[in-house]
Amino acid sequence: MDTCVISANSWNPDDRVRRLTDEFRTALNSVPKEAVVRCVLRTPSHAGRGLQRRLSGAVLLMKRSIVAADDFFVAGMRAAKEGTGREFSRSSLLRGKEMVGNGIRVTQGVATQIPRWSKSVISDPTESLPEIVGATLGFLIGSGGLDANGGLPDLDLLAGIGNHRSFLTHSIIMGAAAEAVLIALDELIALSHEHLPIDRDPLWDSLLQIYGRTSGSAKTGVAVGIAYHLAIDGTLQLAAYKDLPFHAPMEMHQALFEANAATEAVHAVKKL
After folding, report:
1. Structure pTM?
2. pLDDT reading at 258 higher than 80
3. What are 133-152's pLDDT values in tens digits?
4. Are the CB atoms for 219 and 235 separated by under 8 Å?
């Protein structure tokens, strides 16, 4: 009886912490430096592909806008010639109202999901909490908060206030760079996990799964946050870019902010 009592009480949580620490140290020491270097050196290529995807989305968005504007202009001219301008104006107004209504319905649809998300977090945190945490942190990192002060775009302040509103940070370039860094981090974490002992503590596998879900939503959150930051900078906190290679009126600077915001937002929607 005494032996059973001693055996039951001999387990110490410090033993597991020590085991996890030893396994983590073993993994770090086992990862080849060459593999780490390759992961880091792939970051620029990740950024290049991310930028290419964003530019492709911007071109597609521009084409659709031009086609829509051209169709509208042609239809308006035809209506004017045929003497049906009033009917054309009325139908255009109805289409505009329909578009606004669709936007409202989408917003309402998202809003109706919020209670369900909240309930799922309370009833089963492991099911949805990683995605919510990742998306929230990603948005805050990308935007700097609802006031859009700080965040990734404002990293140009590290070079001095005179460099604030740099095109390198206040554009889709920052979005592609941030995504590339997160992808490189994914690769490094996966690489470290591969070099854990075979008989490792099962906690490592659970943590990797949770991290994968958090990281995926974080990438989307960062894109949404950067788009939000650029949209605010192009409207409520309007100021000129500091390093454009040409002189441009404020309207051009505003258009560039909004174009980059729209492009990053389209990219985020595609990820969703």
Report:
1. 0.78
2. yes
3. 898 899 999 999 989 999 99
4. no
**Does 108 map to a domain?**
no
By residue range, what is the domain housing residue 185?
A: 27-83+127-271
Please, is 41 exposed, middle or buried when counting C-beta atoms within 10 Å of its C-beta (0-12, 13-18, 19+)?
exposed
- From the list 241, 142, 176, 175, the residue with the least C-alpha distance to 45 is 176
**What are 115's two structure tokens?**
């209670």
Task: Give helix then strand counts, H and E, for the chain.
Answer: 9, 0
Residue 259 lies in a domain: yes
Cα–Cα dist 196/33, whole Å: 16
* Overall number of domains in the chain: 1
| Residue 88 in domain | no
Taking only the tens place, the pLDDT of each residue in 193-224 is 999 999 999 999 999 999 999 999 999 999 99
Contact criterion met (CB below 8 Å) for 108 and 189: no
Q: Please check whether residue 10 lies inside any domain of the structure.
A: no
